[in-house]
């Protein structure tokens, strides 16, 4: 007769923690030769535990944790280390888009919070013009009052490469902060998503009220679809961290956070190169009148479609989230 799950986890946890510690030493190159036998022994015990959880505790956090732990140990023991660039290629070809699809619920919740902020910011300014005094920066209001976009003078103040670099740095800061604030039990991420949405919605509504809708659309159309998508994905990663802290399941909170945090970090790291690229677009294409509005809009829609097409289709040749069989140790 199987033990209750908490008793089983308490009984076997010491071996799992020891295996995790040895895998960490192996990844850092600090594993001693005499520890290899211990690593192999602990892996075989964990594989047996995985088979046990598949039979008696399927679908639990303990089952998922052991599945991932055994996969890491199997890769460390039986597979040669991968070259760096092939590993990076495989991450963007499979791991990143698969992780996003597995965590689509969190990304969807993040998108809903962001859209709620957009709606709130826009409604406040459209229904009560004085709301712009609270939600729209004074510098933006001053430009709009004179019938100009605050972005018109960007390229006259600094060259495009400096503008692109500054924008990419700012976007990276917002993305990392949106993710990291998930450590406040998800409340920080919630605030960042809603606050960013309110700010953008209020600025857009203010431009519409003042007859500057075309100028606003002209500026955001090229980079907006991808940039806002990345903020939403980072928000989903932050909500994952918050959920692990609020509801760790059968695992200790620290262990659940480590497990879910690794998956969340994949989403943030995967967005990094796209964030750098869209910063270039925002610095070179979005401001000024060098490119007509239809070109910017076409570029933005195309980039957004390519980005989400990649996320939704890449890596589907193999089953998403394929599990390591329990008998792979034999």
From TrEMBL:
InterPro entries, from UniProt? Answer: SpoIIM-like
Keyword Isomerase present in the record's keywords: the answer is no
Give me the segments passing through the membrane: 106-127, 172-194, 267-285, 291-311
Which parts form a coiled-coil structure per UniProt? Answer: none
> What are the record keywords, sorted?
Membrane, Transmembrane, Transmembrane helix
How is this protein named in the record?
Answer: Stage II sporulation protein M
């Amino acid at each position: 007769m199987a033990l209750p799950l908490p008793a089983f986890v308490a009984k076997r946890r010491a071996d799992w923690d020891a295996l995790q510690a040895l895998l960490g030493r192996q990844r850092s190159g600090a594993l001693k030769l005499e520890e290899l036998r211990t690593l192999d022994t602990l892996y075989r015990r964990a594989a047996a535990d995985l088979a046990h959880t598949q039979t008696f505790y399927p679908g639990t956090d303990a089952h998922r944790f052991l599945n991932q732990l055994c996969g890491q140990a199997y890769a460390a023991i039986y597979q040669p280390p991968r070259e760096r660039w092939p590993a990076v290629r495989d991450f963007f070809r499979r791991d990143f888009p698969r992780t996003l699809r597995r965590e689509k619920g969190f990304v969807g919740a993040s998108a809903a919070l962001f859209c709620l902020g957009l709606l709130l910011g826009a409604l406040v300014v459209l229904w009560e013009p004085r709301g712009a005094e609270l939600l729209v920066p004074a510098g933006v209001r001053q430009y709009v009052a004179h019938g100009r976009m605050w972005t018109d003078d960007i390229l006259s103040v600094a060259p495009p490469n400096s503008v692109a670099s500054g924008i990419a740095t700012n976007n990276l800061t917002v993305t990392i902060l949106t993710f990291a604030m998930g450590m406040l039990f998800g409340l920080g991420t919630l605030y960042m998503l809603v606050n960013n949405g309110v700010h953008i919605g209020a600025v857009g509504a203010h431009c519409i009220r003042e007859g500057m809708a075309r100028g606003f659309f002209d500026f955001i159309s090229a980079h907006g679809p991808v940039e806002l998508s990345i903020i939403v994905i980072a928000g989903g990663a932050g909500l994952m961290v918050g959920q692990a802290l609020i509801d760790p399941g059968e695992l200790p909170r620290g262990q659940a956070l480590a497990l879910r945090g690794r998956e969340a970090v994949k989403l943030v790291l995967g967005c990094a190169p796209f964030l750098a690229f869209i910063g270039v677009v925002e610095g070179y294409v979005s401001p000024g009148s060098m490119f007509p509005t239809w070109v910017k809009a076409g570029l933005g829609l195309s980039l957004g479609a390519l980005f989400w097409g990649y996320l939704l289709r890449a890596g589907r040749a193999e089953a998403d989230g394929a599990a390591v069989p329990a008998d792979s140790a034999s």
